[in-house]
Every structure is written in structure tokens, then in C-alpha cells.
Amino acid sequence: MKVSLTPVKEIRLLGLDERSLCNLLWCAASYRMDRLFWADGYLFCIEMYDKSFDFEVEKGILPVSQVCYTRFPKYEKYYEVEKGIQLPIVDASEMQLYRGFLRAIKKMDRGNYPNIKAATPKSSNRSSF
After folding, report:
1. What is the pLDDT averaged over residues 90-101?
2. How far apart, in whole angstroms, are the C-alpha atoms of residue 51 and residue 42?
3. Rounded mean pLDDT, 97-107
């Protein structure tokens, strides 16, 4: 059996938005996301269509429909959105693919996408549920 490593050559983000913690969590819960990701002080949610994986295998390019993020300084294994609704959080700090998402997030935070104006959330207040 032959095993070969074929890393993604390029990630194409179709949407990248900073959200308040409250809005990011509720959006993820209402869309039935099964997990969120955390790396280096950021919490993020990634939405990909199933066809993205087919395209990635054929072309080496991974199209991602939406990445939403918020600052989240301390890692937690899960977050309780509302009573009875908990979302697991994966520490993806050591994973190359997710560090690629993190680079894009940090670039957006620094304003280094000249043609894109980041939407700034109204509040990052954890207790706004």
C-alpha cells in the first residue's frame, strides 16, 4: 500500500468576518456546527460545502465559504451557548491547515486586505445571552 502526503496548496476564503462572541456562538449553534476551533487567542467557525473536498482533491485548492472569528484569549474545551446547548472547541494551534486560517484572521485584524473592509462587531460581551 502506497501512502502519500498531499497538503493543500491554497485555501480560498469566500468570506472572513469578525463577530461578537454572542453572535458567533449563536450562529454556530443555529447552523448545527458540531465544533468550533481555537488557536492563539482566537475562536473561529469554518463553513465548508461538501463539494469543497472534491475540488481540493482534484485541484489542491480548498474553497471555504465562510470563516467567522472573535478574540477568545483563553482556550476552553467547550462553551455553553445557552442552557443545554454546548459547543465543543478544538485547540487547533498545532495544525497547519488551521494555522493558515489563523494567518488570514490576523491579517484581517491588522487591516492588510486593502480591498476588504472588515465588519466590526458591536460587542464581544460573553454575558449577552
Report:
1. 91
2. 27
3. 88
- Parent domain of 43: 10-109
Residue 48 makes CB contacts below 8 A (sequence gap 6+) with 62, 63, 64, 65
- Overall domain count for the chain: 1
User: 107 to each of 17, 47, 66, 72, how far by Cα in Å?
Assistant: 12, 19, 16, 17
Q: Is residue 71 part of a domain?
A: yes
**pTM value?**
0.78
* Strand spans (E) along the chain: 10-13, 16-18, 36-39, 42-47, 61-64, 66-71, 78-82, 85-91
